[in-house]
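name: query_chain
kind: protein
chains: 1
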Amino acid sequence: MAQEVIALRPMWTTRSPRSSFFTLGVNAYMDLAPSADARATYYDKVAASNALLDRRFGGLYLTLARRLGHALGMPARYADDLARPSCHIWTESGIPRTAGGSIHFDLQYQRVLDEPHYAAATGTVSFTLPVRLPAAGSSLLVWPAFTYPEALTRLELARTTPPLRIEYSLGRALVHTGHVLHQIGPTPDISPGDLRITVQGHGIVVDDELVLYW
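structure:
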């Protein structure tokens, strides 16, 4: 899949020019959650984005839904009104070398729940599937003792608490609720030509089905 993503370089969206960070497709946490005009920044772009991604990665999406559904014990599907899971892309110069990224919970679903047909959701999922990693690897930093919403009043304490480091493995998804405090892990040693490409996605549980999106 990594070569396909690279071939789609003209379709990447620049998210931070100074850090060489890109995405492929639209996503809820950047294009929906911060926006006052969700229709223009997210929903109106979903159909074209999904059509492109389905043409290129349709087989991956079938496998991903099947395996996530099996692992979580419920049917998993995609919703045509929400963006497909897709990629974070960090080129060599932008791959984080220090733990300086945002320490956060995944709360973008709160805007998705504004849509009446998702308002009764009973659970959340977040996942990262690495498809290309720097030679020295990459990781997720997590603070298991700090969960949403209870930890909202203890975030300063979390910043002084050492995190747990979970190493990524190619082709193996890391799945969690999104309600555990986490942060992108650093890769201190960067080699020429390194790329960090991960498939990112979320899910909400609606009527005992897992609806996958990004």
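note: Helices lie at 2-7, 28-32, 38-72, 109-112, 155-159.
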